[in-house]
Predict the structure.
Amino acid sequence: MSDDILSKTSASTGAGSPEVIGFYDEDTGSCQYICICPETRHAALIDVVQTLDPKSFSTGFAPAQWALDTIAERGLELEWILDTHPHADHLMAGAWLKEQTGAPTGIGEKVREIAALWRDYYNAPHAFPVDPHFDRLFADGDRFKIGNLDVKVMLSPGHTLGSVTYVVGDAIFAHDTLMMPDAGTARADFPGGTAAELYDSIMRILDHPDETRVFIGHDYGTDSREEPAWESTVGQQKRENIHLKDGASKAEYVARRETRDATLALPDRMLAALQVNLRGGRLPEPEEDGRSYFKIPANRF
């Protein structure tokens, strides 16, 4: 197993509480997770990265293989391969993980609407038939199990129109809504995203008990912190989040978020990533030479 992937384990706090292994992709700042039922040793993978070199456009599965190696070494049984949304900054590894393990894949049902939006951007009216590429499309309020752990799905729009949060006992997988408290919150300027909806989604997440663990989707460090981090609590987010503390109103938050977003460039993998992630992590269909090709819109963004 590779030793160059940074990982940390967050222990279960008791009955109904998962053990969580977080691991980090340095190239994209992505936080990925193995969520484990301590009783049954069943597990879910959440937001695992397929690598992409934005210069050569070569892809790989080092983080996904690290996750599978960890699952094997710990004697776990993979029950679910989950994503929270079609990521803009990295390719998802779901299809490859399913090929290796046979475990089902899941994402929020509003990915269908995200696909419809991006068909226009790519001028590809028949692209991205979402349903064949995912085994389960979750609606807001859906429930399922990881071993004996109860999982609740919360629709959390704002970053995208169809992002979902997975609530597993006292662990919230909050994806691209909150960041670490010293970094604030995630951007809301991608197609289909809005800062107002992001604020509402964050408030739903922070309505959980203060001791609830919060696992985020990205960390890039700060001016005063180089070491990546991905775990906080609801209480910490309420007290310390630089975009939310001191009782920031919704209007104040929206103004702050939109001002910040106006300064941000597109992620360098975004226009490649969406056409893969809307296919569950599959590259575009090979052409007659057996190779896959990305279609990139010029002067659209």
